């Protein structure tokens, strides 16, 4: 009986991964646009779009692709939305990819493959959801399921204040007003977008607004694994989700985010940690750890006893190299990163803890691209899927 139950659980997890939506985003580095990437970088990006195309075979409810241009005009619209898998809509898909990669000086690209879990599944993919305000086009793509009644109650203060909904009618292709037929057609992700924007407007800050919205949802019982999202204002990508629900990679000329990244490219894809917000723009990556605290009910996290220890680095201060010991379960995968005090990632590396449970790590004070770095204070962060540890180090030339 126990073996049968385990088999059912495994099959359930596999089936969920097969029907899950797929998210994708790309951001060109400073001074570049997607069309001006080098030939080798264009090839890497094209491979990402090919992987996304192949994944769409299992996404029965369509795909969408949009881009932000350098000028970042108001009222940005998707390049294309479809109600068919890209594999059945290949001409439109590859024409849209060509538009993003070759036209209009796009600096950010966003893609979504839909497997409907809420709302009307007969309409073209409604992602990305859009919100226009003060000349800025905000967008959100999301994978997960959030109870629509919960979102409605949060937006309207349990139904006592409906003005925010009334001011922003459903976008889901003319589905009707909130009080009528629109409710059956609206997708939970659109309500999530409205709740996020409501908090951003109230707080006057994207970071603080996202923190308020996501923390409230987690406290209400929504696990991180149901909040995989990419939010953008045209200049920045804000990435959040469950453990490894999204992965991030950096090349010499661009950053990329994917639900299921390629296994056949040269990039180092790193899964995000639950409760962290990652902000990506042309100038780099900033990590906000513990952005929404880890929820023990998150099914993407196996409930195990915590065990990650990072011993004090030595020598500290240092001027050559610095060494520190990591202790964790044998065969555990650990990511260690070096940050500036402003949150910029200088170096990141994945390693596996040996059978002894102890790993000695030495950093030679070089950046990810083997460049020299400036004197100053830095932060080491070691992370597993379940916990993280940090400490400060001081580099003196």
Give a structural overview.
The chain is of the alpha+beta class and 397 residues long. 24% of the residues lie in helices and 29% in strands. It is globular, with a radius of gyration of 22 Å. Helix 2 (39-55) packs antiparallel against helix 3 (90-102). It contains eight helices and 20 strands. It has two domains: 2-288, Glutamine Phosphoribosylpyrophosphate, subunit 1, domain 1 (4-Layer Sandwich); 308-395, Immunoglobulin-like, CATH 2.60.40. Strand 19 and strand 20 (388-395) form a beta hairpin. The model is unreliable at 1-18 and 294-305 (pLDDT under 50). It starts with a helix and ends with a strand. The strands form four sheets. Strands 3-2-4-1-10-9-11 form a seven-stranded antiparallel sheet, with helices on one face.
Q: Brief overview, please?
A:
By secondary structure, the chain is of the alpha+beta class. The chain has helices at residues 2-19, 39-55, 90-102, 148-156, 163-167, 182-185, 188-203, 206-219, and strands spanning 22-28, 63-69, 80-82, 106-113, 129-133, 136-143, 228-232, 237-240, 247-250, 254-258, 270-271, 277-281, 284-288, 308-310, 322-328, 333-340, 345-352, 358-363, 376-383, 388-395. The termini are far apart.
């Amino acid at each position: 009986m126990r073996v049968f139950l385990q088999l059912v659980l495994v099959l359930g997890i596999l089936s969920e991964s097969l029907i899950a939506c797929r998210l994708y985003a790309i951001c060109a580095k400073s001074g570049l646009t997607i069309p001006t990437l080098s030939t080798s970088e264009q090839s890497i990006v094209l491979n990402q779009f090919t992987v996304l195309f192949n994944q769409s075979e299992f996404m029965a409810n369509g795909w969408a692709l949009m881009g932000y241009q350098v000028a970042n005009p108001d009222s940005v619209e998707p390049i294309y939305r479809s109600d068919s898998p890209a594999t059945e809509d290949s001409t439109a898909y590859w024409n849209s990819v060509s538009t993003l990669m070759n036209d209009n000086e796009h600096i950010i690209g966003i893609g979504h493959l839909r497997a409907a879990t809420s709302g009307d599944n007969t309409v073209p993919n409604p992602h990305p959801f859009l919100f226009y305000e003060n000349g800025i086009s905000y967008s959100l793509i999301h994978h997960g399921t959030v109870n629509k009644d919960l979102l409605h109650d949060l937006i309207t203060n349990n139904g006592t204040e409906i003005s925010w909904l009334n001011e922003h009618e459903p976008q889901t292709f003319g589905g009707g007003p909130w009080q009528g037929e629109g409710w059956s057609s609206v997708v939970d992700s659109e309500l999530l977008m409205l709740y996020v924007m409501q908090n951003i407007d109230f707080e006057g800050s994207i970071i603080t607004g996202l923190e308020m919205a996501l923390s409230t949802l987690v406290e209400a019982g929504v696990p991180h694994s149901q909040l995989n999202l990419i939010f953008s204002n045209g200049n920045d990508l804000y990435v959040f989700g469950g453990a490894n629900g999204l992965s991030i990679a950096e090349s010499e000329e661009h950053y990329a985010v994917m639900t299921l990244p390629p296994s056949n490219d040269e990039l180092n894809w790193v899964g995000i940690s639950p409760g962290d917000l990652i902000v990506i723009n042309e100038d780099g990556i900033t990590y906000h750890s513990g952005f929404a605290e880890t929820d023990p009910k998150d099914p993407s996290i196996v409930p195990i006893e915590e065990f990650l220890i990072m011993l004090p680095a030595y020598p500290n201060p240092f001027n050559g190299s610095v060494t520190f010991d990591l202790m964790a379960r044998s065969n555990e995968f650990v990511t260690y990163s070096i940050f500036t005090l402003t949150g910029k990632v200088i170096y990141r590396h994945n390693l596996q803890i040996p059978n002894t449970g102890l790993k000695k790590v030495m950093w030679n004070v070089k950046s990810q691209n083997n460049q020299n770095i400036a004197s100053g204070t830095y932060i080491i962060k070691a992370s597993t899927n379940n916990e993280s540890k940090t400490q400060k180090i001081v580099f003196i030339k």
